[in-house]
Design goal:
Elements: H1 2-17, E1 80-83, E2 86-88, E3 95-103, E4 106-113, E5 118-122, H2 126-132, E6 138-139, E7 141-142, E8 148-153, E9 161-167, E10 173-180, E11 204-208, E12 210-214, E13 225-230, E14 233-239, E15 245-250, E16 253-255, E17 265-270, E18 277-283, E19 290-298, E20 304-305
Antiparallel strand pairs: 1-3, 2-10, 3-4, 4-8, 5-6, 5-9, 7-8, 9-10, 11-13, 11-20, 12-19, 13-14, 14-17, 15-16, 15-18, 18-19
Length: 307
């Protein structure tokens, strides 16, 4: 298992190199934090492996790389600073907020942490961090509110990025996998031509296949969905599999249902096709209204003129 854990990130790095820049050099840092892991403290040793937490010393690992994810390089994005969601494979390494900076095709991110238990991070595996020596890694910085942050290079969005975190208490490197979510960026963050847009369609009525993901996995929407294009803007009719949804939200814009009976239906703008669109839907099926995050994927290859 020791060698498998070492080889997998190297294989991933080779695959990503074909479409994105190679791994950036470790920059200077900003902050980090997190609760402490369980497990015994390993004694000092000259071998790098002794400085890396084993599987029995870590909290359960969550799978954060989703099927069908396609890596998004910095060259696909416009220069700017964007809020981005970061999924972590460990609840012990919680990223509560993150700002992604894109400049000349390169990406970096300031990760705001949910705790103060880590002294530094290394963009690679724990084995690599331990082998690199005591000075390896990106130390934390402390924000004005006392929270810790780390400023790290981001090779690509929508792909698993190995990140080792050094525990202050245990003095061990803990392996994590991070995914910077491309579907959490606004549509206008992407360069023209990166994804299919409504500008390729004439005004009129169409249908399009749509795929829903997120929530508990039990929710559904009708597919194909009705698609209306007017003045170069596309609007999709999203019909849910139940009548319990009272509103939908995309970014800061909230949409009310377009019907008063039957399953909840909404008309929402579709800024791009062939990319997961983050949406939020408020359900009244629980004791109190509750907003749930989903993604919708509109497949441009399935667009047809409505009969």
């Amino acid at each position: 298992m020791k060698y498998v854990r070492f080889l997998l990130p190297l294989i991933l790095a080779v695959l990503l190199a074909s479409g994105c820049a190679s791994n950036p050099v470790q920059p200077g840092a900003e902050a980090s934090s997190a609760p402490e892991e369980v497990g015994p403290l390993v004694g000092d040793s000259e071998e790098p492996g002794s400085q890396v937490a084993g599987a029995d010393q870590m909290a359960p690992v969550e799978e954060v790389v989703e099927d069908g994810m396609v890596p998004i390089c910095g060259s696909a994005l416009k220069d700017g600073v964007y809020s981005v969601v970061v999924d972590s494979s460990s609840s012990m390494f919680s990223v509560t907020g993150c700002e992604l900076t894109v400049a000349d095709g390169k990406m970096s991110a300031v990760m705001h942490m949910g705790g103060k238990g880590y002294l530094k991070v290394f963009m690679g595996t724990g084995e690599e961090a331990a082998a690199a020596g005591d000075d390896a890694g990106i130390p934390f910085s402390e924000a004005e509110d006392g929270t810790h942050t780390f400023t790290v290079p981001v090779e690509a969005l929508d792909t698993g990025i190995p990140c080792a975190a050094f525990s202050k208490k245990k003095e061990l490197w803990y392996d994590r996998t991070l995914v910077f979510r491309g579907d959490s960026l606004p549509a206008d963050a992407f360069r023209d031509g990166t994804f299919t847009g409504a500008e390729t369609l004439e005004d009129g009525a169409y249908t399009v296949e749509v795929r829903l993901e997120g929530g508990s996995g039990r929710a559904s929407v009708e597919s194909p969905a009705a698609l209306r294009v007017e003045d170069g803007t596309a609007y999709a009719s999203v019909v849910w599999g139940s009548s319990n949804y009272s509103s939908m939200r995309i970014g800061e814009e909230t949409f009310a249902p377009v019907n008063t009976s039957g399953n909840s239906a909404f008309e929402i703008p579709v800024s791009v096709f062939d990319r997961k669109l983050a949406v939020y839907a408020e359900t009244t099926a629980m004791s109190t209204p509750h907003e749930i995050e989903y993604t919708l994927y509109f497949d441009a290859s399935t667009i047809k003129n409505a009969e």
